[in-house]
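Chain X:
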Amino acid sequence: MTKRLWWMIGAMLLVLALAFGVWWFWGKPQGPLQVKAGVVTPISMQENVFATGSVVPVSSQEVRVLTPGRVAKVAVKVGDSVQAGQTLVALDTTLVDAQVAQAKVSVEAAQTVVSTAQANLDELKKAQSAASTAGLSPDSSADGAGVVSSLLPQFLSEQNSTPQESLVSPVVIRQAEGALAQSKAALKQAQEMLKVAQVQQGQLIHKASMAGTVVEVNAQEGNLSSVQVPLVVVADLTQMNVEAQLNEIDAGKVQVGGKVSISSKMLGDASVQGTIVEIAPTAVSKTSIQGSASPTVGIKIRLEKAPLELKPGFTVTIEIIVATKEGVLAVPQEALFQEGNKNYVYRIQAGRLEKTEVKLGIGNDTHQEITSGLNSGDQVVLNPSNDFSEGMQVVPEAGSGGV
């Protein structure tokens, strides 16, 4: 019985202790909740857009082929400096060389036919002119016709015409003119065929279209050329662009001509300045295993002076200044919270919290412009918690109060 009594006494003492603790916590008067606060004051603000991009040459040339062919010669290697017109790579031209030679023979043969037709027409006109001077006509005597016949070319006998008949009839002249026209047409066709063969021959010898540096060589002598990758790539490494993708919100803030600061691990603490020269007219969405990503808009930035440390393909960080304002009312970003599509702060009014809707302007990493809802000198709570509520009694912590 004694042991049981001691257990009962211990239980009663525990209950009394808990009751005393509850009374001490809830019965003791509680003071205002201390909060970290800031004062709304006018400041100078700059809004920036941050993104990552890739360094690319302003100008480059890729040597590609539509159909594979045997590589006869690779005239350059990676790192070589080349000039415009310099041969980069040549494919086997054996077949097209034969086609060019055959086309040249055809042109020469067609030119001979034109020369012969022209000579025949000239002689015929001379004979007609001589007959006209001698006063011959269709009824002229045989003697007169004999005089004329001595001036006619072999062409007349091939037409089975007598000198008198040829002279009095324009038919033979027109036939000779027609033969000349046909021979000229044949010559032109042969010349065009030669041009085609020469173009095909030239397409197998690939030359640099610009001065630059060879940055890629994928061709090997004796192997077939690939159609999937360029045989040779030449780039101008003295001028560089940066290409980047911006989300929908940031893309709406930038414009052509905007100034950009470029930084990279390769540059250390230094930065390179650039200018936006192009903004894509449409947004694109890349599809991945996880599905379609949010649409992005491509931009192109021209670097004012590309340092040698920035190589094509390097990743850089870009900072775009999209807005600058002086004397704007702003609050720290940590003072804001959202409910639905609206933005709020807790303003301290007469020692109590007042939930206040605000309208936002430009912003940066640390501050947000307030276009309506607050006045200069207002105190706002920083890092408000879900336990805060309208009318709660608060007091700013010592030392807090500035934006």
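Chain Y:
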Amino acid sequence: MRIKYNIRRSIELANFLIKLCRQEDMRNHIPHVANQECIYILANGPSLNQSLTDIINNKRYLTDCMMSMNFFTNDERYEIIKPKYHVISDPMFYDAPGQEDRVADFFVNINAKTTWPITLFVPYRFWKDKVWQGKFTNQNISLIPFHQVTPPYDCLFLNWIAQHGLIGVNFGSVLHHCIYVSLLSGYKEIFLYGADHTFFDGLCVNDNNQVCKKTTHFYDENPDVVPIFHTYTGVKTAYTMSHFLSEYAGIFKGHELLRRIASSFNAIIINVTPGSMIDAYERQV
């Protein structure tokens, strides 16, 4: 049985590397630049509002390295915090059906507001599109790509491959990418704010057997409970409960994998988000 297990893992590793070569490349594009031991990642959970108040009141943003994500650029506090790094990974930033206005605001704001040098980490397929790159007109913004081809969970030589920047941590949350690029950049203590991951709050099934959810981000006001859909097949499709639970199980499993990878970097991930549903990292609340 052990032989069959290792044969399977070897085949999966080969398939992963072939896919990486075909879709992206075999380079680590993320430089090791950390001149500080710790970095603070500002995730999108609703608790970030209070955390931002504390960070601003304590003026921590003046001394500590900050990484933001997604639509934080649309928030007025973006210009106060002045994050050193920003990460986007959602396909909507490349192709935005139904989100055109919000994504358009992102490009307007990041170009208009960014008066300091910032590194913007983006998926490799975004980065290689020169037309898409051309949407960034501010010389303060430097684009660096990360990989999105995800290895098997029990991938052979995972730690070695991860240390060389060749894996994608595309497990369903931009937070995964933030953590991984922080590790590759050389940070040894990674603190997570707004990493609520309370995906199951407001989850219900209405009388029409539609899976519904109240999605909350720190920038949302009075979110409604509405049916939820996905477009993985290229067509807008309603979630089933089994599909929803399977998908979000993958998100939490991705954090378990990142904890393992962080150990191989001699780094630690510390979750300082009150009420967070993530159980993979050390807590400090």
